[in-house]
Task: structure prediction
Amino acid sequence: GDNAWATASGDNTPSFFAYLSASWAITSEEVHVEIPFDTEVFDSDSCYNTSTYRFTPTTAGKYLVYSNVTIMAATQETLYRAMVQIRKNGGEQSISNVDHRGYAFFGATIPATWVVDMNGSSDYLSMYAFYDTASGEASVIRSTQGYSGWGAFKIGNT
Result:
């Protein structure tokens, strides 16, 4: 489809948006694992790395980080908890959580948004996922940019 963001430029750069090229199985239950967002929709200043899945902007400032991540259990009515984290330099900045330990469900789409100060040289951002199921079934973050993706753009100076 047509994506207006594909040519992002201007005052809100560096900016990027990336998503998964295929569904991805989270191999460890109850452990936060880095999400391998490996496909760029746009990357205004070549600051997103599709091999390390990290955004390292080359301009200091405040950045708005946003994501939408869908986590699905392998079996219906077995997913208790699902979480996503925005991390800066490997440390938690923001966590979004769905907790249904009273009754299990099949999947959840979890949005996350945060504002982060970046130094324009070594600071990097990454996204992590977590799941907990009734009987240890593997959870999957579903593919296509409509289900799971993340991005960031500069919104002002530090």
Notes: The longest strand covers residues 61-73.
